[in-house]
Each structure stands twice: as C-alpha cells, then as structure tokens.
Amino acid sequence: QSYCHRLQHDMYFLTSTSRLNEQVVDKIVLQLNRVYPQILTNEEAEKFRNPKASLHTRLSDLLKHLQKKGDRHCQEFYRALQINAEQLFNDLPSRKILKTPDPTEIDTDKEQYMLNDRGPVFFLACFSVAAGLALFWYCCNSETQVIGRPRRILGFSPIIIGRHVRNICMLYLEDISRN
Predict the structure, then answer these.
(1) Where are the transmembrane segments (predicted)?
(2) CA distance 162 to 24
C-alpha cells in the first residue's frame, strides 16, 4: 500500500477535531521544510504555518499538497508525524490495518516451531542413523582394505544398533573378507 493511499485513508482521522494541535502541526511543517530532501519550500512552509487560517484548513491543504507531490513526500510526512506525535501515529487507521495479520500469510514463528517440534532426541536419532549408514557404506566399499577396524566398531555396537542388525552386518563383512 503506497504512502499516498495511506494518507488519503488517514486524512479524516488526522483532520478531525483535537487530534493534532497547532504546535504539533507547526513542528511537522518545519521538519518537512528542513529535512533532506526538502519536502516543503520556504514559501509552502509559511503558507501551511499561517496563523490566520484555521488549523483544519491548513492541515487539509498540507495533506492534499503532499498527496499531489508523490509517495516520497507522504512517507516523509509519516516520519515527521511519528517523531512529533508518536501516540497519534500508532493510532492511525492505516497502521491498524497494517498490524492485523493476513490469514493467507505464513506465520514464520509458527512455521519454525512446526519444523522443530520433534526436539533433540529426534535429531540425535536421525544423526545416528545417518552415521551408521555412512559407516556401513564405508565398510562395504570394495576398495576399502581396512576391514579389521570396522569389524571392531561393529562388534561393540549392540547398544547403538539392534543385535539382529549387528549380526547381519557382521555376516556381510565376513562375506566381503572371504571374496
């Protein structure tokens, strides 16, 4: 959503009575006049700070002027509003729309939890299986000449892998060593 569209949406809220007082509007106008890049020229700033016109009229004219200038100018207005009237900035209708969650959007925190909900035991089990398969592949590789070390490791592994699996691995290693 562009800042100009947001400003159009927030215009009634900002221009309603007693939302912004004269001092805050003057601070915003001065900030827009002095900020780099300069949003309001000196003549425009004087026009929007004119005490002869009513606050409602000056503020309405300022908001319309910023909308005509473009998105960057509206963005700077929101920045000035946040600096000078943070509570009002947080209460803007467009901010409330931005804060409400989109039902089609993926909640990354929830997704992260859903991917990691199995815990460390599951990780250790998967890691053990992967390490066992790597060791088994190393032992079964026909180019490998060192058969005694893996046999010793597999001989001491009834705790890690079941007795039946260990027996199958030992039989396979014996068959390889005979060939």
Answers:
(1) 120-138
(2) 76
Read off the pTM: 0.54
Report the C-alpha gap between 68 and 63 in whole angstroms: 9
Task: Enumerate the H helices of the chain as residue ranges.
Answer: 3-15, 22-34, 42-48, 55-69, 71-84, 86-90, 93-99, 108-115, 119-140, 148-155, 163-178
Look at residue 73 and tell me if it is in a domain.
Answer: yes
CATH number, domain of 44, equals 1.10.533.10
Closest by CA to 81, choosing from 32, 119, 117, is: 32
Residue 136 in tokens:
């088994």
Banded model confidence at residue 80, pLDDT cuts 50, 70, 90: very high
Any domain includes 16? yes
Taking only the tens place, the pLDDT of each residue in 30-39 is 999 988 668 8
C-alpha Rg value of the chain to the nearest Å: 35
Q: Which residues, at least 6 apart from 143, have a Cβ–Cβ distance to it below 8 Å?
A: none
Which domain, by its residues, includes 77? Answer: 3-97
pLDDT reported for residue 173: 76
Please tell me what DSSP assigns to residue 116: T
Q: Is residue 132 part of a domain?
A: no
Looking at the structure of the chain, the number of domains it has is 1
